[in-house]
Specification:
The protein has 344 residues and is of the alpha+beta class. The protein contains eleven helices and eight strands. A six-stranded mixed β-sheet has the order 1-6-5-4-8-7, with helices on both faces. Strand 7 (113-120) and strand 8 form a beta hairpin. Helix 7 (218-263) packs parallel to helix 9 (284-292) and helix 8 packs antiparallel against helix 9.
């Protein structure tokens, strides 16, 4: 680290026999040089985040001897960091309470230096977390392996930091958003996945077409569709009824034309079976033009057939006329309708 980092501790211990410092500079603001590793950096924002993390834990931080806390052996405390403070223009300072044994070592100048263990962010080498502090006499050489080992672990933590940064970005949070904000955002997403919004009733274009609002519910949309559908159903029903009526009228016209043609002897049952009935149904005007325009009795002679009495009543139907009516399917009522005057 930079000389002024070590000097800050040495300076207060320069005179033998004096009491150990109750506060000293852990990291200077700006660049912190690590022997054999390179430079790390500390800004006020990063420093205050370290303080916040320390306060969140709520525990005193150990100052041990020679980084013994990093091994599995006995690691007695030399002191405890009771608090961290940011000193403008200077850096991050530690407020410490020493053990009696550590006080004696320091007063006797048996330990003269300290070595903080911390984590840096891989993307910019920013110091982001303080692990602990050790008293040591050879901070640049003897105890580099433990620090480096801890820094290796820090790289794993750094990857977690990077993942957290990506998560914040995905969630639309600020880069300095607290973990609580991240947790809240994730919980909100999980809650929405467990209770998703109901799918839309119809696409926006359909809702617009029927005059419904974008947030219209199922019942409202169904009601509006039914109201639009009803006139169409009525129109279809009327169309069917009109078509049926036209069919009935067409058959009625066919029957009237055939009856008239037979009455006047302008066609025969054989001719009707071949094409006359079909023509009378499908094209009555053409039937009139071809059949009814013929001379009276040109196909079947009708003279001498008694069909009605002089008073208008039916006097009788001879066998010939009755046979003709049966072959043509003409009822007696229909025949009477068109033969209410006698032809002699």
């Amino acid at each position: 680290m930079k000389n002024r980092l070590w000097a800050s501790f040495k300076e207060v211990m320069a005179k033998a026999g004096e009491e150990p410092p109750r506060e000293f500079l852990l990291f200077p603001e700006g660049t912190v040089t690590l022997e054999g590793i390179g430079d790390a950096y500390l800004t006020e924002t990063a420093g205050r985040q370290i303080i916040k993390d320390f306060e969140r834990r709520g525990n005193d931080m150990v100052i041990d001897y020679e980084h013994q806390s990093l091994s599995d052996g006995v690691a007695p405390a030399a002191g405890w960091i009771k608090g961290l403070v940011w000193s403008a223009g200077e850096g991050l300072r530690a407020v410490v309470e020493w053990t009696q044994r550590a006080k004696e070592h320091l007063k006797a100048r048996e330990y003269r230096y300290f070595s903080p263990v911390f984590m840096v962010r891989a993307t910019d080498n920013m110091i982001v977390k303080l692990i602990n502090v050790a008293l040591t006499n050879q901070p640049k050489t003897n105890h580099l392996p433990p620090i480096v080992a801890k820094m290796d672990l820090a790289q794993t933590s750094t990857r977690e930091e990077e993942q957290m940064d990506k998560l914040k970005k995905l969630l639309g949070l600020a880069a300095d958003a607290a973990e609580e904000k991240v947790t809240e955002a994730v919980e909100a997403i999980v809650a929405k996945l467990k209770n998703p919004d109901p799918p839309p009733i119809a696409c926006k274009e359909v809702l617009t077409a029927i005059g419904a609002k974008e947030d219209a519910g199922k019942e409202e949309v169904l009601r509006m569709v039914a109201s639009l559908k009803a006139p169409n159903e009525v129109a279809i029903t009327l169309s069917h009824e009109v078509a049926a009526l036209k069919t009935r009228l067409a058959h009625k016209d066919q029957e009237d034309l055939i009856t008239l043609a037979l009455k006047e002897g302008k066609t025969s049952p054989e001719e009707l079976d071949k094409w006359g009935k079909k023509l009378a149904l499908e094209n009555p005007e053409q039937f009139r033009l071809i059949v009814l325009s013929r001379p009276f009795g040109s196909v079947i002679p009708v003279e001498g057939i008694r069909v009605a009495a002089k008073d208008g009543g039916l006097a009788g139907i001879d066998e010939t006329q009755r046979a003709i009516n049966e072959m043509c399917g003409v009822s007696e009522e229909t025949f009477k309708k068109y033969n209410n005057q006698a032809r002699i």
